[in-house]
Design a protein that fits this description.
The protein is an alpha/beta fold and 469 residues long. It has helices at residues 28-31, 34-39, 45-49, 56-63, 74-77, 88-93, 160-172, 191-202, 216-219, 226-232, 252-263, 282-294, 318-328, 393-401, 410-414, 426-442, 448-461, and strands spanning 122-126, 129-133, 178-182, 209-214, 238-242, 268-273, 297-303, 339-344, 349-352, 358-361, 365-369, 375-379. The protein has 2 domains: 16-100, no CATH class; 114-358, TIM Barrel. The protein binds pyridoxal-5'-phosphate (PLP).
Length: 469
C-alpha cells in the first residue's frame, strides 16, 4: 500500500483482476489469489488510514477496546470511497463510535437461536428445516452482524465432534428435508472439510435440499474458483444465498464468480439487510435488484435489521421497508422483488411484511388496488366446492406424518383442525376462571362471565395451545 488515492466519487473502474492503484507493488497473481487476500486483511487504524481519509468517528470506532472484530479483504476495501465517510461500502465494514452505543431494545440473542439449538451450532426452529452453523469465521466482518455474539471469535470454533452431533441429529429426525449451512461463512472453511460435510449430509436419505448462505462471493470473489465450484456441484440439489446490500458490490470480479456458480447449476438467491444510510432508498434497492437478476441472482429476502448490539444506528423504521416494497412491486419484474421480512424477536422466525393490496371484501367481491392506485373488484365464484382434506390423499398422508404439534399455526385454523391458538400463560388463567364458574354454577347463579371463561378453558384444554415458538 502506498499513497492515498485521488478524490473520486465512484469506486475505481478497472479491468477484472487488475491490481488497484493503491496496491501497485503487489503482483497481479497475488491480488487474484484468495489466500493472499485473506492473509492481507485490513484491521487497524493504520491499515485503513493508508487508503481512506478516516474521520474521528471511525478512528474512535476502530480504537475502542473490545469492539466487534474488524477484518476486511484488500479487494473489498478497494471499493471504498476514500473521501466519503458515508460511502455504503465503508459503512458496512469500518466501525464508528455509534456502534459502541447500546440502544434500549437490543438483545444478546435477538432471534433466540441458542434456545432453539438441540446440539451446539444447530438451530431447529421450523419443523422441516435446520440452520447449521459450521464456522464462526468470515472473509470480512459486517458491522451489523446478527450473530456477533459468536462470530469473529477465533477461540470459538466448531469441532469435528460438533459436526458429528449436528449430522447425527439431522439423520435421526426424518422430518428435516432442508439444511441451511451458515455461520460465519461456510465458504471460508477448508475445502476438504466442507466437501466432507456435504458428502455426509447428502448421504442422509430424507434430506432433499442443501443450501449455503455466504458472503464470500461479495468479500472474496477470488475464492469462487473452478475447483471449488466443481466440488460443490457434486451435491445437487444445492442452492446458495449470497448477501448483497448495495449495487456497488457487484463488480466485474463478482459477476465472474456468480456466473461460475450459476453455470454449475446452483440456483442463486440474495439476502439483503435494510440498513440506514446504505440501502434505505427505493432507487438504490431497485438498482441492486436489477443488477442481481442480470447476474442470475434472484432477490430472496430483504431483512429488517435485527435488534443486535452495535447495529442500532443501522436500524430504520419498518415503514422504510414497506415504502421500498411499494416502489418495487409493479414497477419492476417480479423476479427482481424480494420478500421483506422481520425476523421476529424471541425466535418467532421470519414474518413477511408488505403494503396492503386488498382494500375491502364482501361475500362475492374482493376489492384490490394495484401499484398505480387503480382499484378494481374481483368477483368470487358463486359455486365452489371446497377442497375436502378428508377426501384428499395428499392431505391424508400429511396428517399421518404430522407428528409435530403446535406448528400447524394459522393454517390449522383455516383448515378447521383447530378452533383457536392460545398464547403462553393463557391456560392457567382460564382454568382458574373455569373453577370460579363451577363455583358459580353450584351456587345456581350462572353468569355470562362464567360462560365465556368456560368456553375459553374448554378450548385451551382441548390441546390447542401453541404458546411457545
Ligand atoms: C432463516 C432460517 C431458516 C430458513 O428459512 P426460509 O424461510 O426457509 O429461508 C431456517 N432456520 C432458521 C433458524 C432460520 O433463521
Amino acid at each position: 500500500m502506498k499513497t492515498r488515492q485521488s478524490k473520486s466519487a465512484e469506486p475505481p473502474q478497472r479491468a477484472r483482476g487488475s491490481v488497484p492503484e493503491l496496491w501497485q507493488g503487489i503482483a497481479p497473481e497475488s491480488w487474484q489469489d484468495w489466500r493472499w487476500q485473506l492473509s492481507h486483511r485490513l484491521n487497524t487504524v493504520d491499515d485503513f488510514a493508508q487508503i481512506v481519509r478516516l474521520t474521528p468517528n471511525e478512528i474512535e470506532g476502530l480504537s475502542a477496546p473490545g469492539h466487534f472484530r474488524v477484518d476486511v479483504t484488500p479487494y473489498f476495501a478497494s471499493l471504498m470511497d476514500a473521501d466519503d465517510p458515508n460511502c455504503p461500502i465503508r459503512r458496512q465494514i469500518i466501525p464508528t463510535a455509534q456502534e459502541l452505543v447500546p440502544f434500549s431494545a437490543e438483545m444478546v440473542d435477538s432471534l433466540s437461536e441458542d434456545a432453539h439449538s438441540p446440539v451446539p451450532g444447530l438451530v431447529h426452529r421450523y419443523p422441516d428445516r435446520v440452520l447449521m452453523l459450521v464456522t464462526t469465521q468470515c472473509a470480512s466482518y459486517c458491522r451489523y452482524c446478527t450473530r456477533s455474539r459468536i462470530v469473529g471469535d477465533s477461540s470459538v470454533q466448531f469441532s469435528r465432534r460438533d459436526y458429528d452431533r449436528q449430522i447425527e441429529y439431522i439423520a435421526q429426525n426424518s422430518q428435516i428435508r432442508d439444511v441451511l449451512l451458515s455461520g460465519g461463512d461456510p465458504l471460508t472453511i477448508p475445502q476438504r472439510v466442507l466437501e466432507d460435510l456435504l458428502r455426509r449430509l447428502r448421504a442422509i436419505p430424507h434430506l432433499e435440499i442443501i443450501r449455503i448462505g455466504s458472503r464470500v462471493p461479495v468479500f472474496l470473489p477470488q475464492r469462487i474458483t473452478p475447483e471449488l465450484v466443481e466440488m460443490l456441484r457434486q451435491f445437487h440439489p444445492l442452492w446458495m444465498n449470497v448477501h448483497f446490500n448495495h449495487p456497488k458490490e457487484i463488480t466485474a470480479e463478482v459477476s465472474v464468480a456468480l456466473a461460475r456458480l450459476a453455470d454449475a447449476g446452483i440456483p442463486l438467491g440474495c439476502q439483503s439487510v435494510l440498513l440506514a444510510g446504505v440501502n434505505d432508498c427505493p432507487n438504490v434497492m431497485k438498482e441492486l435488484c436489477h443488477k442481481l437478476v442480470m447476474n442470475r441472482v434472484r432477490p430472496y429476502y430483504l431483512y429488517q435489521c435485527d435488534l443486535v448490539h452495535g447495529a442500532g444506528h443501522f436500524r430504520t423504521p419498518v415503514a422504510t421497508g414497506i415504502e421500498i416494497m411499494e416502489a418495487l412491486r409493479g414497477h419492476t419484474s417480479g423476479y427482481a422483488i424480494p420478500t421483506y421480512v422481520i425476523d421476529a424477536p424471541g425466535g418467532g422466525g421470519k414474518v413477511p411484511v408488505m403494503p396492503n393490496y386488498v382494500i375491502s371484501q364482501s361475500a362475492d367481491k374482493v376489492v384490490v388496488r394495484n401499484y398505480e392506485g387503480y382499484i378494481s373488484a374481483y368477483t368470487q365464484p358463486e359455486q365452489y366446492t371446497r377442497h375436502d382434506p378428508k377426501q384428499c390423499p395428499a392431505c391424508q398422508a400429511r396428517a399421518l406424518e404430522n407428528k409435530e404439534t403446535g406448528q400447524q399455526g394459522v393454517s390449522a385454523l383455516l383448515a378447521g383442525e383447530k378452533l383457536s391458538l392460545v398464547p403462553e400463560g393463557f391456560t392457567q388463567t382460564h382454568e382458574r376462571l373455569a373453577q370460579m364458574k363451577t363455583v358459580a354454577l353450584e351456587g345456581d347463579a350462572v353468569q355470562l362471565n362464567g360462560r365465556v371463561a368456560a368456553t375459553f378453558a374448554a378450548s385451551a384444554a382441548n390441546g390447542n395451545g401453541n404458546g411457545d415458538f
